[in-house]
Every structure is written in C-alpha cells, then in structure tokens.
Amino acid sequence: MTLNREQWALEWQRLREVDWRDMDVKEAGSWPWLLKVVCCCLALLAALCVMMWFVVSEQREAYTAAQRQEVRLLSEYRSKASQAAFLPEMREQLATLEGQMGRLRTMLPTDAEIPSLLDSISDAAVDNRLTIETIRLRPTQTQPHYIEQPLDIQVRGGYHQLARFSADIASLPRMVTQHDFTLEPVDGRGDTLRLSLLARTYRYVEESEAPSTEGADTP
C-alpha cells in the first residue's frame, strides 16, 4: 500500500484529532491507519523488550558468576604465585628447622638413658662435695609431642658448691630444666644450705609410641 503526500497528511490529521481518553481497544478496527501502525510498532517493541529481558537476565547472571569466579581465581593465582616465588627460601628454612629439630632430639634422653641421667646428676653432686638427701623420679607426664619426666632433687652443702652443682646440671649433654628452687639453712646455720628443686627432662614421642585415639569412645 503506497500513500502519497496528501494521504499522509490526511492520516496525520486524523491521528492528531484522536481523543486518547475515549479510545477503546474493542474499536481498534476504526482507528486511523497510522495509529494502528504506531500501536503495532509499540507492541512489537514491548514483546522484543520482554524477550530480551529474559534472555539477557540469564546471561547477566552467568556473567556475574563468571566475574566472581574471575576474582577468586585471580586471588588464588596471586597467592600461589607468591608462594612459588618464595618456595626456595621456604625449603631452606624448612631444612634449617629440621636440622635444629634433629639437634634438639639428640639432647633429649631416651627411656633407657634416664637411669644414666640420674647417675650424672648424682656424680655432679658428689663432684661438688654435696650431701645428697633425695634424687628420685616423679611419674611421667605425657604431652602431645613429648613425655615429661620430673625429678625431685634435694642436696645440702655450701652456697658456692650448690651454685656449681646447678650449673653442672644445666651443662649436661641431655636437656634438663630446673624449676621451683628452695634454698634454706640447715639446722639454723648459715654455712650449710639445703637446695630443693624440681628438675625436668623430656623424651620425644615417636609416632609408633603416640597414643591411639581409636576406640576411645568404646566403654
């Protein structure tokens, strides 16, 4: 259908004369031809917008999820890249720590070496001319990675002798820590003192010796 200029002008005049308040969809057949075209175009545009909304909304959600994943992956990449950059230094530090741990383990007595450790403490007391009143073992205390062996020590002698005795214990090849010192005169005399202390030595727990938790809930 081809419209000339006069017909276009006529249709435009009819469109301008339309009373939009009195329009009824039931009378759409009598609407001006130009109004019908405009309404069809608007309906088509609305349909396209609705279709695009549903299509784009799904892709928008996928795009948002991809953005979140991108941020997460970038963060993981930066973290792993940083770890990879410091990996040689971390390996050197780990080797150093393992070496230190090995040296510390050699300072811890084994279960079979506890009697010889008691002999070394007794020898230190004898070498410093002290009178041994008590050197005895307390019950062991098991920790997650080591076993603690407390010892009660009570000796008697001069101040300088006791000081040398304490230094000799600290310099033993096996690790012995000293706690709860008590120093008091014997029989009210100041020239002879009694030293009481709690010494602790430690034994490393091997994996084969670690207590098993299996069946702990079984009555």
TrEMBL record:
Family annotation (InterPro entries): PilO, Transl_elong_EF1B/ribsomal_bS6
Record key words, sorted: Membrane, Transmembrane, Transmembrane helix
GO terms of biological process kind: type IV pilus assembly; type IV pilus-dependent motility
Regions that span the bilayer: 33-56
Keyword Transmembrane carried by entry: yes
Pfam families to which the protein is assigned, alphabetical: PilO
Protein name: Pilus assembly protein PilO
Source species of the chain: Halomonas campaniensis
